[in-house]
Design goal:
The protein has 10 helices and 2 strands; from the N terminus they run H-H-H-H-H-H-E-E-H-H-H-H. A hairpin with a 2-residue loop joins strand 1 and strand 2. It has a two-stranded antiparallel ribbon. It is mostly helical. Helix 4 packs antiparallel against helix 5 and helix 5 runs antiparallel to helix 9. It has one domain. The radius of gyration is 23 Å and the shape is globular.
Length: about 240
């Protein structure tokens, strides 16, 4: 601690520790913490997430590169366009979800530290809330891209160049509904598959709600100024 107060790093570390406590209180853990009942057993509700942590295409490619560096004559597999798109979308999704988690924690931490009142708005709370919602919106786009690549072996742009059962493939829920229409023999996979259209509709509904909230928060100063201009407080 310096004569003028804590260093920037000390303050940053203190905020990080406090936000981590808030997130743990809300049971919002690191994304990789989900998918497991314990150290060995997969959580059936998150089996896909657990599989991605242990046997993703990105890990396979990385292992191949490491093996090629260590052993002469080993060839690194040449990825198709959809495979590159899958790896990139998956990485984007993971990074965005981690960022959204921290933004949520920072928003709640700031609101608890200095709650907004009728006369004073906690701008740091609004800032991190907007950040969390925008990041979650972007994450919902990336998980859709990942799903398209994994199921249809193509990129989003190519997939959306067409329709399915007269439904535009550019609609958010269409790829999930299209994938769910394919018959699967495995009972567990079929049950998971049947949930896709419902979940996609819910995700899209949340996207629209988040967009509305972000717009309201970002334009609050403008609306306040408009109220002052058009309906000023009465003068004594």
């Amino acid at each position: 601690m310096s004569e003028t107060g804590p260093s920037s790093k000390a303050l940053s570390d203190a905020v990080r520790e406090a936000v981590t406590l808030v997130l743990h209180e809300l049971r919002l853990y690191e994304p990789d913490s989900y998918g497991w009942l314990n150290a060995e057993d997969v959580d059936p509700e998150y089996v896909g997430h657990a599989m991605n942590q242990t046997d993703s295409l990105a890990f396979r490619v990385l292992d191949a590169h490491i093996e090629a560096l260590q052993s002469r004559g080993v060839k690194v597999p040449v990825l198709e366009e959809w495979q590159k798109y899958l790896i990139r979308s998956g990485g984007d999704f993971e990074g965005l979800m981690k960022a959204a988690r921290w933004a949520i924690g920072l928003a709640i931490f700031n609101e608890r530290a200095a709650p907004s009142t009728q006369f004073e708005v906690n701008e740091m709370f609004h800032l991190h809330l907007i950040s969390a919602m925008m990041t979650l919106g972007a994450a919902s786009d990336r998980i859709r891209d990942l799903f398209i690549a994994a199921n249809f072996r193509t990129t989003r742009k190519k997939y959306e160049n067409g329709s399915w059962l007269e439904k535009a493939r550019s609609d958010y829920a269409t790829p999930f509904a299209e994938a769910a229409s394919v018959s699967i023999a495995d009972r567990w996979a079929a049950e998971s598959q049947a949930k896709l259209p419902i979940m996609a509709v819910e995700i899209f509904r949340f996207r629209r709600l988040r967009n509305a909230v972000v717009h309201d928060l970002a334009t609050e100063d403008g609306r306040r100024s408009d109220r002052i201009a058009n309906d000023p407080p009465p003068t004594p």
